[in-house]
Design a protein that fits this description.
Shape: flat
Strand content: over 45%
CATH topology: Transcriptional Co-activator pc4, Chain A
CATH architecture: Roll
Strand order of the largest sheet: 1-2-3-4
Number of strands: 4
InterPro entries: PC4_C (IPR003173), ssDNA-bd_transcriptional_reg (IPR009044)
Number of domains: 1
Largest sheet: 4 strands, antiparallel
GO biological process, one term: regulation of DNA-templated transcription
Protein name: Transcriptional coactivator p15 (PC4) C-terminal domain-containing protein
GO molecular function: DNA binding
C-alpha cells in the first residue's frame, strides 16, 4: 500500500504526487508521478510519466535535489 506524502498542482488538469510504500516483493519504494484529471473530472489518475525508485536511494536523491539550489 502506497502512502501519499504530498502533491503539487502543475495545472488545473494535472498534479505531481509523491508516495512511499511497499511495492510487490521489491521492498519500500518512492514514487513521484504525474496525475491527470479523469475525463469525468471527478478524480485524478496516474500516468506513465514519473520516477519510481528504492527508498535506499533517497539520500542520493536528496543530495541531487539540494544541488539544484546552487545552480
Amino acid at each position: 500500500m502506497m502512502k501519499k506524502i504530498g502533491e503539487i498542482e502543475v495545472t488545473d488538469q494535472s498534479k505531481l504526487v509523491l508516495t512511499i510504500g511497499e511495492y510487490k516483493d521489491q521492498g519500500e519504494r518512492i514514487d513521484l508521478r504525474l496525475y491527470v484529471k479523469s475525463r469525468e473530472g471527478d478524480s485524478y489518475i496516474p500516468t506513465k510519466k514519473g520516477v519510481f525508485f528504492s527508498s535506499e536511494w533517497l539520500p542520493h536523491f536528496i543530495e541531487m535535489v539540494d544541488k539544484l539550489k546552487e545552480v
